[in-house]
Amino acid sequence: MSNVLVLKSSILGDYSQSNGLIDHLVSSIAGSVSSVTERDLAAQPLPVLDGEIAGGLRGGVDLSQRQKETLDQSDQLIEELKAHDTIVIAAPMYNFHIPTQLKNWIDLVARAGVTFSYTETGLVGLITGKKAVVVTTRGGMHKDGPTDVMIPYLKTVLGFIGITDVEVVYSEALAMGPEMAEKAIAGAKADLEDLSFDEAKIDQVKVTKPEQTPVWKKLLSKLGLS
What we know:
By secondary structure, this protein is of the alpha/beta class. It is 36% helix and 19% strand.
């Protein structure tokens, strides 16, 4: 039985190529996994790491309200990570790296003593027994080249918390003409369909909702513009 956590990170919503590939994957694995939990990191943005939040993630008794809320959010994200067998990460390339929205997730789940630990013999990742699938979309062609710094980074940070089984599905040249883009999307879809999941009947697709109203919506409400 396999439980799949899907992380979207594109800022383009319905126009996103990576979101489209993820939706195709979710549709194709129906009937071969037990559950899918989807978290859209752009639609449901997480706090950006700063000094206050970094201090709060260490815990303690004299935390500000913002620190308490972010610590609770971090705990929820980590429990969500632990509860799933396979983590599917949509990672479009923005300026040669991952989206800020995905980096915010990483900053909240990479916690010393919780998801990794420093020992006398070195670093130990504590989130083990998981598989990660990274689905990356790019306008140009970067695979295995010097401009592809994001895949080594993702493999490093996932390994840092204990996830060393990482498979990457590429869809490149999406801005290099309709013919190349169509071929790239078709190839990525075929690669996604070849992924193996445990054979079990799917129960439901759960879409995680944000716990709080985003700040920009609160501001609009105060101005009477909601």
